[in-house]
Specification:
- By secondary structure, this protein is an alpha/beta fold.
- It has helices spanning about 25-35, 55-70, 115-130, 150-165, 175-185, 195-200, 205-210, 225-230, 250, 270-280, 285-300; strands at about 5, 10-15, 40-45, 70-75, 75-80, 95-100, 145, 165-170, 190-195, 240, 310-320, 340-350, 355, 360.
- A 6-stranded parallel beta sheet has the order 5-6-7-8-9-10. The chain has a 5-stranded antiparallel beta sheet with strand order 1-11-12-13-14. Strands 2-3-4 form a 3-stranded parallel beta sheet.
- The longest helix is centred in the first third of the chain and has 18 residues, at about 115-130.
Length: about 375
């Protein structure tokens, strides 16, 4: 056994499903899964039911997280087609604004240039009053984070450049996208981006084996697209999971009548670190790459406060097979089941308290903190 100590990780893209879809996940089960993966901070997306798009809904979600979470939680507000700028009064209490401009789970897709133009302008105008949040600043706004694929990506890049609004591109998956982001960064656009483990380690070649369990948005891309992500590793600022749990029954696994359109998304917060450590073992990256993209960069980009006396202990000599058993996520499955990995989380310490050890979550519900939000 060889134990190394790493900072508590940040997963800057999770869907903890509460409110509205608690049968898939909630703040208790989702943050327990996070601790099991060495993650001590998660940023939760707004496509719940109802969506987190008004001050009242953000306050309700914050109360739920405060009562249940066992790691720290930041909450996005979301743009909708019908509620305009309803979220702006509490923009500072969110970790950022999420805009969906491509196909996704839920009903938050924005599909007109007029509305996109308005959303970028109003966020930039608000930031002109309070600034952008940097390195844990108490005031200011987080970035605009977009689900933007293919032709919608240059639209978002252009709007970001025009309004000087920091932009974060979620789950980049294609060669054309990462190469465009590379050029945008070289030209001075305020853009950062993330890649998920499933887009780094899976491709269309895996779909025959995975079936509906491999259905996600963005969809799995070609082996050449996967190769492009690794070729442009220096352009990728964050590794984040897009942890998006659905039940196996919803996916059509083990049911007599599979659904015609299974919901897209896969769980991932528990398996990110062992997959990345395996990549490090294989020479694709190193520990500094992991810390930069799972700790330093997400904290800088989203202005997250420090977590004092917080670390994780990992046995880098542990070699084992990922399985669906013993997962903390409520849905109890992973698309990486059967994969051999190197590196196991043995212990997690959050603010001086051991919150996870030997496969067990020891933290009390509500011991996690809700970031930025205030009553």
């Amino acid at each position: 056994m060889s134990i190394i100590r790493l900072p508590g990780l940040v997963d800057a893209h999770v869907h903890l499903r509460e409110p509205g879809y608690e049968y898939k996940e909630d703040f208790a089960s989702g943050t327990m899964a996070a601790l099991a993966g060495g993650v001590t901070t998660v940023l939760d997306m707004p496509n719940t039911n109802p969506p987190t798009s008004t001050p009242e809904r953000l306050a309700d979600k914050a109360r739920r997280a405060a009562a249940k979470a066992v790691c720290d939680v930041g909450l996005f507000v979301g743009a909708t087609n019908t509620e305009g700028d309803a979220y702006l009064p509490v923009a500072e209490q969110a970790c950022g604004l999420k805009i969906y401009v491509s196909d996704t789970f839920g009903s938050l897709r924005i599909d007109t240039l007029e509305l996109m133009h308005h959303l970028f302008r109003s966020w930039a105008e608000k930031a002109a009053q309070v600034g952008y949040r940097i390195d844990g600043a108490a005031r200011g706004l987080g970035p605009i984070t977009v689900h933007a694929e293919e032709l919608m990506l240059p639209v978002c890049l252009a709007l970001s450049h025009l309004y000087r609004a920091p932009l974060h591109i979620a789950h980049v998956s294609r060669r054309s996208e990462i190469e465009l982001i590379c050029v945008a960064k070289e030209r001075g656009v305020f853009v950062t981006c993330e890649a998920t483990p499933h887009h780094l380690f899976l491709s269309t070649d895996d779909l025959p084996r995975l079936g509906a369990r491999g259905d996600m948005r963005p969809r799995l891309a070609t082996p050449d697209d996967v190769a492009a992500l690794w070729e442009h590793l220096e352009v990728i600022d964050i590794f984040a999971t897009d942890h998006a749990p659905h039940t196996l029954a919803e996916k059509g696994v083990g049911v007599s009548e599979p659904p015609a359109a299974p919901p897209p998304g896969v769980p991932g917060v528990e398996t990110m670190l062992p997959l990345l450590l395996t990549a490090a073992h294989d020479g694709l990256l190193d520990l500094d790459d992991i810390v930069a993209r799972c700790v330093d960069n997400p904290r800088r980009i989203y202005g997250l406060p420090a977590q004092p006396d917080t670390w994780i202990e990992v046995d880098v000599d542990a070699v084992y097979e990922l399985t669906n058993t013993d997962l903390k996520t409520r849905v109890g499955w992973t698309p990486f089941a059967g994969q051999r990995v190197h590196g196991r989380v043995e212990r997690v310490v959050l603010r001086g308290e051991t919150v996870y050890a030997q496969g067990q979550v020891l933290a009390k519900p509500g011991s996690g903190r809700v970031l930025f939000h205030r009553e």
